[in-house]
Amino acid sequence: MSDIAQTIKFMVFRSFLWITSVLPLSFLYALAGGLSHLMMLFPNRSRDTTRKNLMACFPLYGEAKISQLVRLSLRSTIATMLEMGKAWLLPMQDTLALVKNSEGVDALNDAYLSNDGVILFAPHIGNWEIFGFYVTKTLSSSFLFQPPKNRKINDMILKARSRGGVELLPANRKGVSKLVAALKRGNLVAMLPDQVPADEGGVFVDFFGNSAFTMTLASKLAAKRPCKVFYGFAKRDASSKGFKVIVKEIDSSFFSEDILDSVRTINTAVEDCIREAPEQYQWEYKRFKKQPDGSEFY
Q1: pLDDT for the residue numbered 63
Q2: CA–CA separation, 219 vs 140, rounded Å?
Q3: Sign of CA dihedral 55, 273, 88, 79
Q4: How far apart are CA 103 and CA 205, in angstroms?
């Protein structure tokens, strides 16, 4: 992409973020509802992938229930996009003020003070940007992320996400090495547990009754040194005026010497989050694109 094209794309994206940053959350959520209705009317990849994932994960649901969840999930995904401006451009105190209540955060903070290091799983449910800012506001933390191709947009995202003191590390060998070093220093390191890893970075374990290729990095890190492990998300409240941050400590089976048991516990934690708000999960992501027999799921 040429520099001019990158600049134009950046300006459009930046304008979108600014406009949505000043609009009320309730308006953005209503807009997301209208757009989700339109997406239900016309064929599109997001709708079709969401439906296929929901049918696979909830096979006992009838057509009416699945269709309702498809629409609600699309609404939530659109709402998360519309909330980016508030997450990235507002003063930090205003972004944090969007969280109206929380549970489990004190336990996370206490674990951090042990200086053993903390692994935090933040699946794609609710608003993971606001979740990350809120739970790490007083903690030295490092996050793995996938840089966008547009250099200007990447620079803006780096500035926005690191303004709370978060260290952003690229999802490559160099970034993982720095992540390991941060954990050894007793810092908090955050990972997205429901992204499909590279071939050498995962194993197939159950996720809602389906084989899902799941990351092994966290399990291997925990096997090398004692640490605390938590998971959670920022749940959009029913009034669409804010969020509730939910944090839980992972089950002890995560520390099993059997890597399959450990990784399976990660998916169980993600399932636990989803059961809290199934309509707020990003079901449009192709979670099952890798299959044990190499077949096509989508």
Answers
A1: 96
A2: 21
A3: positive
A4: 29
- Among candidate residues 59, 54, 10, the one with its CA nearest the CA of residue 274: 54
165-to-90, 189, 282 alpha-carbon distances in Å:
16, 13, 27
Strands 228-236, 202-207: pairing is unpaired
Average model confidence (pLDDT) across the chain: 93
Instruction: Please state the rounded mean pLDDT for residues 145-164.
Output: 81
CA nearest 118: which of 176, 170, 185? 185
Q: What is the dihedral of CA 185, 187, 188, 193, to 10 degrees?
A: -20
pLDDT at 1 over 70: no
Domain boundaries, the chain: 3-280
pLDDT tens-digit readout, 95-131 = 999 999 999 999 999 999 999 999 999 999 999 999 9
Non-local CB neighbours of 282 within 8 Å, separated by 6+ positions: 73, 76, 77, 80, 124, 125
3-state secondary structure of 212: strand
Report pLDDT digits (tens) over 254-276.
999 999 999 999 999 999 999 99
pLDDT score recorded for residue 150: 79
**257: nearest Cα among 215, 204, 219, 212:** 219
Residue 256, helix vs strand vs coil: coil
List, in sequence order, the alpha helices (H) in the chain. Answer: 3-22, 25-41, 45-57, 63-82, 84-88, 92-96, 105-113, 128-135, 151-162, 173-184, 217-224, 259-276
Place of tokens 């001019």: 4
Nearest to 164, CA basis, from 140, 190, 191? 140
- Tokens (6 digits) for 53: 């994932």
Choose the weakest-confidence range: 64-78, 89-103, 156-170, 206-220: 156-170
